[in-house]
Specification:
100 residues, GMP Synthetase, Chain A, domain 3, three-stranded mixed beta sheet
């Protein structure tokens, strides 16, 4: 009977994971970026999602910072401490966010 209990436990663990974690997809990343776009736009910038690439070390998200962000000296800080941190809180498997 222990095998059945173990299987049921694994099933429940998987269901909990699915209920509490979003899948890493273009649509979900874009939706999460929508949460921080108003802050970037308030300073005259614009954040555009480009793609997710799956490299050897893990997924990498590519974005474009446009508008006032293109010439802003703080854009690299916005990218790493703002955008990258926010996405990694949702998906720890993301290795980095790169501006193109």
């Amino acid at each position: 009977m222990a095998g059945v209990e173990d299987t049921y436990y694994q099933y429940l663990k998987r269901q909990h994971y699915l209920a509490t974690h979003m899948e890493l997809t273009d649509v979900n990343v874009n939706n999460v970026l929508n949460e921080i776009r108003p802050y970037i736009e308030a300073d005259g910038g614009y954040l555009e999602f480009v793609s997710i690439d799956y490299l050897e070390e893990g997924p990498v998200v590519f974005v474009k910072l446009l508008g006032a962000c293109e010439s802003c000296a703080m854009s690299s800080m916005t990218l790493k401490q703002g955008i990258e941190t926010h996405l990694q809180n949702k998906w720890p498997e993301i290795k980095q966010v790169i501006q193109i």
